[in-house]
Design a protein that fits this description.
Layout: H1 2-22, E1 28-30, E2 33-37, H2 45-53, E3 58-59, H3 65-77, E4 83-88, E5 97-98, E6 103-104, E7 125-129, E8 135-139, E9 148-151
Antiparallel strand pairs: 1-2, 2-9, 3-9, 4-5, 4-7, 5-6, 7-8
Bound molecules: calcium ion (CA) (2 copies).
Length: 152
């Protein structure tokens, strides 16, 4: 019993250490990934990609609902503005893919009535929409929103 308690203690000490190695200062660790929110630097979708790339990262790719929930909570807690994710249907209208892997979105969390790009509108890039609790909205890629970067 004492041994397992001691082991638990050591492991508890080690885990933050491992995460600290993964994530640099001001990057937020979660589930083996590191996140960085570019507060105060609103950029177009393309410029946000470059912003993340310059930091050895990519605009966030939401692999699981849990990751989506974690990041929405983080944005809520920090009262972030509208924030880009790496999802776009630029190549095929209505086919939503993560730009860094070209993989299809496996789930979605659209706000009410979204995505609503149709006709001559051209809303090909997706962001966390502050006014609907950071659910997803398709918007013009030229709009300037906060970049949210992720690295492995
Ligand atoms: Ca991810
Ligand atoms: Ca929309």
């Amino acid at each position: 019993m004492k041994t397992s308690l001691a082991l638990l203690f050591v492991v508890t000490l080690l885990i933050p250490g491992i995460k600290a190695v993964c994530c640099n200062d001001s990057w937020i660790p979660h589930n083996g990934h590191c996140y960085y929110i570019g507060y105060g630097t609103p950029l177009t979708f393309s410029a946000a990609q470059v912003y993340c790339h310059d930091r050895g990262a990519y605009l966030v790719r939401l692999d699981t609902l849990a990751e989506n929930t974690f990041l929405k909570d983080l944005l809520k807690k920090t009262n972030a503005g509208n924030t880009w994710m790496g999802l776009t249907d630029r190549t095929h209208e209505g086919i939503w893919r993560w730009y860094d892997t070209n993989s299809h979105a496996t789930f979605s969390d659209w706000g009410p009535g979204e995505p609503n790009s149709y006709g001559n509108r051209n809303d090909d890039c997706v962001h966390f929409y502050k006014s609907v609790d950071y659910k997803w909205n398709d918007s013009g890629c030229h709009n300037k929103f906060t970049p949210l970067c992720e690295k492995n």
